[in-house]
Amino acid sequence: MRDRFGAELRRWRTERRLTQRSLARQVWHSQESVAKIEKGERWPSQDFAVHCDRVLGTGGVLAGLWPAVERERLVCDRRRSAATAADAG
Predict the structure, then answer these.
(1) Spans in the chain with pLDDT lower than 70
(2) Which pLDDT does position 34 carry in this prediction?
(3) By C-alpha distance, which of 64, 10, 87 is closest to 41?
(4) CB-count exposure of residue 65 (10 Å: 0-12, 13-18, 19+)
(5) How far apart are CA 4 and CA 69, in angstroms?
(6) Interior CA angle at 86 toward 84 and 89, to 5°?
(7) What CA–CA distance (Å, rounded) separates 79 from 75?
(8) 2-15 and 46-56 are packed helices; what angle lies between their axes, rounded to 10 degrees?
(9) Can you tell me the distance from the alpha carbon of 80 to that of 15, in angstroms, rounded to the nearest whole number?
(10) What is the pLDDT of residues 59-69, one digit of tens each?
(11) Residue 67 gets which letter from DSSP?
């Protein structure tokens, strides 16, 4: 889901003919953050999704994807915690 969010973000950004840098400035993030989110290397925050929707005029597409992204992040966090606990035990 994180990858899908990133792909949608990139699609909307390129359709609007914005660079990663210009989008980053408008949503108060770094160009590096935008790039990593687009590549699926970083989890987007809900605020990030909402701000990107506003700037890109998506009609709420990214904010609509965010709950599924957050569920995926929580599952990954639980797995990582379980693996850490198993390694410590």
Answers:
(1) 85, 88-89
(2) 98
(3) 10
(4) buried
(5) 9
(6) 110
(7) 6
(8) 20
(9) 36
(10) 999 999 999 99
(11) H
